Amino acid sequence: MTDQQPDHGVARLAKRKEPNHRMPWQPIVAASAVTLSMGASGFAQPIAEPSCEYGTVHENAPSEIDQFAFLIGNYTVSMHRWLGEDWSAAMPGTSARWNGYYGLGGMAIVDEWYNPDPAQDPDAFRGINVRMYDTDADEWDMMWLDTGGKQVADLRAKMIDGVLTMWQITPERPGFRAEFYVEDEDNWSRITYSRDEEDADWQPTFKLNAVRIACSADEAF
């Protein structure tokens, strides 16, 4: 979004903590067409059945493809606002969905975003990312398209001080920055930052907490 193998292809990013406090990860109750997750309101929310078909990495793909490999899988996502000193509880009502898989024969990572989860609204806003690593530029080239803006966005990402960091090239969006943090093979987060002036400090504004959906009820945790 502008925002998904035995080891789940987890990207082991350097251990730099996200700003201030980390919210606890929310558990998955089950993982099928009738999967329910618990939102901030405490009411169960339906989750679409995971595809569990993720493809494989091409043998000639650059090793840096592992940096975004934590996206591979199906994830339920809660959303949190920065309150100045801490993150809010999960925004109530619905949960979002992030699905990732290997594309272009394993040379790229493709991930889809739905808000809310399509099981909660079949006409949900949705978007798709294609991410490919450019070894010459030593950074990620990414293209984003969604059903809202209907305009392709050109983005970049690279490791900066041990943190996978993303920014937008076109349309110009100088006040946008996002960082990805991997907790473990089943949990990761994306934090969005903004700033009003070029020399101002980046301020956290929004966080997406992603929790893996198991491919069968027997694997649910």
Question: What are the SSEs and their pairings?
Answer:
Layout: E1 35-38, E2 44-47, E3 73-81, E4 96-103, E5 108-115, E6 125-134, E7 139-146, E8 153-160, E9 163-170, E10 176-184, E11 187-194, E12 203-212
Give a short overview.
The chain is an all-beta fold. It is 0% helix and 43% strand.
Number of helices: 0
Residue fraction in strands: 35-45%
Distance between the amino and carboxyl termini: 26 Å
Rounded Rg: 17 Å
Chain-averaged pLDDT: 83
Low-pLDDT residue spans? 3-36, 38-43, 217-221
Overall SS class: mainly beta
| Extended strand count | 12
Protein model, in words:
The protein contains no helices and twelve strands. It is mostly beta strands and 221 residues long. The strands form two sheets. A ten-stranded antiparallel β-barrel has the order 3-4-5-6-7-8-9-10-11-12. Strands 1-2 form a two-stranded antiparallel sheet. It is globular. The two termini are 26 Å apart.
